[in-house]
Amino acid sequence: MIIHISLVESRTEVKSMEQERERNGRLCCLCSGRAALRRPKTLQQLCRECFFRVFEDEIHQVIVSNGLFTRGERVAIGASGGKDSTVLAYVLAKLNQTHDYGLHLFLLSVDEGITGYRDDSLETVHRNQIQYGLPLKVVSYKDLYGWTMDEIVATIGKKNNCTFCGVFRRQALDRGAALLKVDKLVTGHNADDIAETVLLNILRGDIARLSRCTSITTGEDGPIPRCKPFKYTYEKEIVIYPFN
């Protein structure tokens, strides 16, 4: 009878809490504090602190469960100055310190030589270098190939220039990583990027690339493997993270 009463009381308390949560409508589902956002990935109502924690914890679990790094490794972060690479650099530097990964982190940026496009983003990368306390290496098309992207476009025209730039950029990252003598290169490709790539490969009928584009680590048979710690991270959450 006492147990029955306690169960009834517990149910009453739970129902009361649920009703209060419904009335309030904005309570964090993890700590019952005031919610600041609805998480895109799970639709959970979360306060800022809990969102930061689950966002960072999930990336930590991805790194650990996939064995992305080994203590003592030199790791270059492909830094473009955009949201993905900027958040990746911050989170990876924070996790490296918090969880004692023992990694030696570097920022690696590519200057394509595109007037009015790369200048501002390189300024962001230089700010990141100071804010995160990470060494920065900038490699340029001019130094590597003898041409800037503007000069290449002036010669070949605008048709297919994005294709050329993409190939040159991937090679530049590889060469920059080699100059830094790193063991791994990490990029900010997120779940949305990977989904788009999968869809494009299906539409093109390029089945051979499907497994490669969905792998969290690629180029393992090459000198410097590439990793994608944001493989399961939604783009919306990457956007939300620095603004909360």
Helix content: 40-55%
Mean pLDDT score: 88
The main sheet orders its strands as 5-4-3-6-8-7
Overall SS class: alpha/beta
> Gyration radius, to the nearest Å?
23 Å
Please tell me about this protein's structure.
This protein has helices spanning 2-24, 48-65, 83-98, 118-132, 141-145, 149-156, 161-180, 191-204, 210-214, 235-240, and strands at 37-38, 45-46, 74-78, 104-111, 136-140, 184-186, 217-218, 226-227. The radius of gyration is 23 Å and the shape is globular. The chain is of the alpha/beta class and 244 residues long. It folds into two domains: 1-54, no CATH class; 66-243, HUPs (Rossmann fold, 3-Layer(aba) Sandwich). The longest helix has 23 residues, at 2-24. It has a six-stranded mixed beta sheet. A two-stranded antiparallel sheet has the order 1-2.
Main attributes of the structure:
two-stranded antiparallel ribbon; 244 residues; 2 domains; 10 helices; alpha/beta; disordered N terminus; Rossmann fold; globular; 53% helix; six-stranded mixed sheet
Short note summarizing the structure:
The chain is an alpha/beta fold and 244 residues long.
List the helices and strands and how they pair.
Layout: H1 2-24, E1 37-38, E2 45-46, H2 48-65, E3 74-78, H3 83-98, E4 104-111, H4 118-132, E5 136-140, H5 141-145, H6 149-156, H7 161-180, E6 184-186, H8 191-204, H9 210-214, E7 217-218, E8 226-227, H10 235-240
Parallel strand pairs: 3-4, 3-6, 4-5, 6-8
Antiparallel strand pairs: 1-2, 7-8
